[in-house]
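Deviation from plan, reported transparently: uridine-diphosphate-N-acetylglucosamine complex.
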Amino acid sequence: MDKFIIEGPAPLQGSIPISGSKNAALPLMAAAILGDSPSSISLVPKLKDIYTFNNVIRVTGTAVDFNEDENRLTIDPSNLGFPEAPYDLVRKMRASFYMLGALMGRTGDAKVSLPGGCAWGPRPVDLHLKGMEAMGAEITLEKGYVFGSFPGDSVPGGEYTLEPSSVGATVNLILAAVRRADKFVIHNAAKEPDVVLLCSMLTKMGANIEGAGTGTITIKKADALKGVEFSNDPDRIETGTFMIAAAMHPDSEITLTGCKPEDLGSFPKTLSKTGASVQINGSEIKVKAPDTIKPVSVTTKIYPGFPTDLQAQWATLMTQADGESTVTETIYFDRFSYVPELKRLGASISLEKNRATINGGKKLSGTSVMSTDLRASVSLVLAAMVANGQSEVLRIYHLDRGYEDLEQKLSGLGASVTRADD
Ligand code: UD1
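Because the crystal trials were delayed, the predicted structure below was used instead.
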């Protein structure tokens, strides 16, 4: 198992490129399964979750070729003959559950393992299943597996209201509906850029989808979908993570290239409130740290509100702020496993229910800390980079799931981050 050894504190200076988005790429990969010919997707990051999903897709008989030099995936579903996603793979990555919609859309039938819980507490898929039933699918559960099937080639469809709004359920319902439902309407659909991008790719393939990016998405059946060439989007969470990293040390100033600033929702404005300078110029974002970080409280919300995937990093930034702030989590109430680890580095944080109160301005000092999930891990790296002395961040396999070339990018900005065998 690898770990990072980090020497702090060091300012970040220079320019780095943003990688393709992991969370956006996964629905695109699932969409490619619906095509009658191969699709090619560019700007796909080389990340563990992408390799895992490649293997999930291959189980079905679909050919997947990952040109790593070009970050380009080619997915050819012509020989798909086994519409299943086994537990051994699904348990490694919850988004494998997108295979339910993709396989039902493609073949009319699917057998997909239930994903189970995760480090953030229970993460149900009830909305995915109820939405499929509202569409006219038959869903049964047996021995940890979901069996889904459409009676006949198509169903009349219907409508379903997601409560709460869910990215995963919106994606799964779109995938299932595009080739099978005469008309299906999703109310309170997720408005996240990942959903909009999925709809763009499917529309290019020949799907009939209206309302992407709004709360009401209407899908009308397309008889055939063709494979396409399509580009993934840059990773908005990686972008936000580096923007936060740049705000943490008073001498930091970095430029992020290849970004899609319009996908960041309210985040750049929120970061500016700390006193950081955020300049957006086309696809470039320049962030300069403030001399003193002002405390800014945030509450996670669905897009375009403050993303839950940036709250651990934000709490870490607030440990260096001049005063008290809170981080309130409304999407995943238990997503605070990083708090005891930040405390080990010297942060002053108290936790009550779904709210962390951070008493900023405490000097952090290096020590060993343990990663628990993807975004928690990166927040420990951010903290270690401003802590005095050496830190070890253990179990960084979580980071390898979601941050492409993290140590190379941070080292390129002047941080001292090295990977070692634990
Ligand atoms: C996706 C992202 C994840 C991000 C999350 C919220 C991917 C691979 N993952 O996860 O990084 O943190 O969006 O932005 O893109 N819910 C139900 N029943 C369901 C489905 C969801 O109650 O059937 C609830 C969840 O418990 C949660 C809320 O809906 O409280 C939103 O979850 P959802 O948007 O589905 O998250 P994911 O798609 O799993």
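The CA atoms of residues 266 and 281 lie 17 Å apart. We consider this an acceptable substitute for the interim report.
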